[in-house]
Design goal:
Layout lengths: L4 E2 L9 H12 L4 E5 L8 E7 L2 E8 L2 E6 L14 E3 L3 E3 L6 E3 L4 E3 L18 E7 L2 E5 L7 H12 L8 E10 L3 H8 L5 H4 L1 H6 L6 E5 L2 E5 L11 E8 L3 E6 L2 E11 L2 E10 L1 H4 L2 H31 L6 E2 L5 H14 L1
Antiparallel strand pairs: 1-19, 2-11, 3-4, 3-6, 4-5, 5-10, 7-8, 8-9, 10-11, 12-18, 13-14, 14-15, 15-16, 16-17, 17-18
Helix pairs in contact: 3-8
Length: about 350
């Protein structure tokens, strides 16, 4: 008989102070997906993201990829605007025009004037670690964090001989949900709700045989297709890479799902679809995949926002987790608690 696990207390899903602690102890210390190497082909190519309030960029230099906080050292202006593009030979602040080399060194403090003690070498950009897994680029704000390969090793083993190199970026979709990021992540981490909430998905996969297994920093979800011969969107494998990345494996590629906190009770989902070239080139095939994803997301949005509202009402304080279905939720809540301690 399994040990009974209580849920996290309701307060952690509505307390701004808890969210502020998570920003620093969860997100600032973990590997965060930011883009793909195909978006960083030419010198000066940039991808940008905001990770729990931290604005970050990765840029292609002459000899690799560098990553920085998207914050000028003068008066905190932005260096790059938008999600992706090319900055040319330098990163230039949009506020006062300070210019930085692509390796982060300050090249020009525009019209600054003479100032005793001002040394440009002391005003390089705030740098981040940057590493890649199978072409997918991740950044980390913590210099002491384990290398990305340790983070992704269970995922690498499970993916096995799947060849991701031919896949091309086929689109990005964003969805805003009025709930705490942990509440959405926990919804992702169990299949207990599928028969009631996701009728279309339940028609594709056999949710009665849904399995959850935790390996290191990755929580795997598997469910056999009800009809292996059918044209199903999903391939029956989902992986959650701590703390907030879903790797949704499709029959014709995959979708990376970033669960980005926007505050104590708001979450933005960023979906990047990577598909086989012939599928990506077909408007009807892309729409078939987008439509299933859109349907599942709308269903998750409805239930997660209702749960958030119930938590905010102040009646519910704590519940219990199913040992059969919610081992992934127990793992996640334990990991969050450990990070905050």
């Amino acid at each position: 008989m399994s040990k009974l696990h209580l849920t996290s207390p309701a307060e952690v899903y509505r307390d701004p102070a808890t969210y502020d602690a998570e920003r620093k102890r969860v997100f600032a210390g973990s590997w965060q997906f930011i883009g793909h190497e195909s978006e960083l082909r030419e010198t000066g190519d940039v991808v940008a993201a905001t990770i729990a309030g931290f604005p970050v960029i990765a840029v292609k230099t002459g000899d690799g990829v560098k990553a920085f906080h998207n914050v000028c050292r003068h008066r905190a202006g932005p260096l790059f605007d938008g999600e992706r593009g090319n900055c040319g030979a330098s990163l230039t602040c949009k506020y006062h025009g300070w210019s930085y080399a692509l390796d982060g060194r300050l090249r020009s403090a525009r019209d600054f004037g003479a100032a005793d003690g001002f040394d440009p070498r002391n005003f390089s950009l705030f740098s981040l670690r940057v590493e890649a897994w199978r072409g997918f680029v991740f950044v980390n704000m913590d210099e002491a964090a384990p290398p990305l390969r340790e983070w992704t090793q269970p995922l690498e083993a499970r993916m096995g001989t799947r060849d991701l190199s031919p896949l091309v970026h086929a689109g990005r979709k964003t969805h805003d949900i009025g709930c705490n990021w942990k509440l959405y992540a926990e919804n992702y981490l169990e299949g207990y709700h599928i028969p009631l909430v996701h009728r279309g998905l339940d028609a594709e996969v056999d949710s009665a045989k849904y399995e959850v297994n935790v390996e290191g920093q990755v929580c795997f979800h598997t469910a056999p297709l009800r009809d292996a011969r059918a044209e199903a969107v999903y391939d029956g494998l989902w992986a959650f890479l701590w703390p907030n990345l879903g790797v949704n494996v499709y029959g014709n590629g995959l979708m990376l799902e970033r669960m980005m906190p926007m505050g104590s009770s708001a979450t933005r989902l960023i979906y990047d679809y990577y598909l086989r070239p012939e599928i990506a080139a077909s408007a009807s095939e892309r729409e078939r995949i987008f439509a299933m994803s859109r349907e599942v997301t709308a269903e998750d949005k409805w239930i997660c926002e209702r749960v958030q509202a119930n938590i905010a009402a102040g009646i519910y304080e704590q519940g219990v987790l199913s040992p059969r279905h919610e081992a992934g939720v127990a793992w996640f809540q334990g990991a969050v608690g450990q990070a905050l301690r």
